[in-house]
């Protein structure tokens, strides 16, 4: 009887030690890649957290995976393709929102269809960011938002929320070595992520434009909306487009 009591006492002690053992704590990992499905999961996880501990800052770096194509998918730099940076930027974001890929053949067919539709609707060779937002809504059925007086933190917040950002720019101020000559007066690209000191883009102005990195200051200084006169592009407002 005494032996049974001793065994019971020893077993109880081990059980107490097991119950008081601290759980293993893992540091939260930084989100480096965002897509539409993971963003939904992230939103759900955030909504389940206590409202007393809201997020205070954006991740230090991240990258959204957005399909890429240059504006001249087969390097045919004729007048149509030379002016197609706005359309290809929108096409890339549309494919991201639909969760589909974008082959060179598909990009070529789509950019020609979109430009033909724009011509029928009375749009010019160059469109400003508000007009591109209207095209996104009318042609693709998406919702578009123009952000005025944009800052680098605003762009990062949109990216952290899972939104690629379409940026109009004074193309020559980007100083991309893969542009032909001095580069275009007016250009458009998609910001897909950021690092500590720069932004990651899908730049349709070159076949090497996928995940092309620009220093923060250079990209932000180059942001200018279309004014209607190419030589006056640096007078354009600092605004960007988010398509959802």
Summed up, the helix count is 8
Q: How many DSSP E strands?
A: 8
Give unreliable regions as ranges: 1-56
Name the CATH superfamily classification: Cysteine proteinases
Distance between the termini: 74 Å
* CATH 2nd-level architecture: Alpha-Beta Complex
Number of domains: 1
Largest sheet: 8 strands, mixed
DSSP helix fraction? 25-40%
Global Rg? 25 Å
Q: How does this structure look, described?
A:
This protein is α+β, with helices and mostly antiparallel strands and 244 residues long. The protein has one domain (57-243): Alpha-Beta Complex (Cathepsin B, Chain A). Helix content is 39%, strand content 16%. The protein has helices at residues 2-19, 36-47, 79-82, 85-98, 104-121, 129-140, 152-160, 216-222, and strands at residues 33-34, 62-64, 144-148, 165-170, 186-194, 198-202, 212-215, 239-243. Strands 1, 2, 3, 4, 5, 6, 7 and 8 form an 8-stranded mixed sheet that branches. Strand 1, helix 2 and strand 2 form a beta-alpha-beta unit. The N and C termini lie far apart (74 Å).
Main attributes of the structure:
disordered N terminus; 244 residues; 39% helix; Cathepsin B, Chain A; globular; 8 helices; 16% strand; alpha+beta; eight-stranded mixed sheet
Q: What's the short version?
A:
With 244 residues, this protein is an alpha+beta fold. 39% of the residues lie in helices and 16% in strands.
């Amino acid at each position: 009887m005494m032996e049974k009591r001793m065994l019971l006492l020893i077993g109880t002690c081990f059980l107490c030690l097991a119950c008081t053992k601290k759980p293993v704590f893992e540091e939260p990992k930084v989100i480096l890649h965002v897509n539409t499905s993971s963003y939904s999961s992230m939103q759900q996880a955030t909504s389940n957290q206590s409202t007393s501990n809201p997020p205070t800052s954006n991740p230090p770096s991240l990258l959204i995976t957005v399909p890429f194509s240059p504006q001249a998918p087969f390097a045919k730099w004729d007048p149509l393709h030379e002016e197609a940076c706005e359309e290809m930027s929108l096409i890339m974001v549309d494919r991201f929102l639909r969760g589909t890929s974008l082959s060179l053949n598909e990009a070529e067919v789509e950019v020609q269809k979109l430009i033909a539709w724009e011509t029928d609707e009375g749009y010019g060779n160059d469109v400003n960011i508000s007009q591109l937002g209207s095209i996104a809504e009318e042609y693709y059925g998406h919702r578009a938002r123009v952000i005025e007086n944009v800052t680098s933190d605003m762009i990062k917040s949109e990216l952290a929320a899972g939104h690629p950002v379409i940026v109009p720019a004074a193309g020559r101020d980007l100083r991309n070595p893969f542009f032909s000559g001095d580069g275009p007066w007016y250009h458009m690209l998609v910001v897909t992520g950021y690092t500590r000191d720069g932004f990651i883009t899908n730049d349709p102005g070159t076949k090497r434009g996928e995940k092309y990195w620009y220093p923060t200051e250079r990209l932000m200084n180059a942001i200018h909306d279309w004014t209607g006169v190419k030589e006056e592009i640096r007078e354009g407002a600092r605004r960007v487009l988010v398509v959802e």
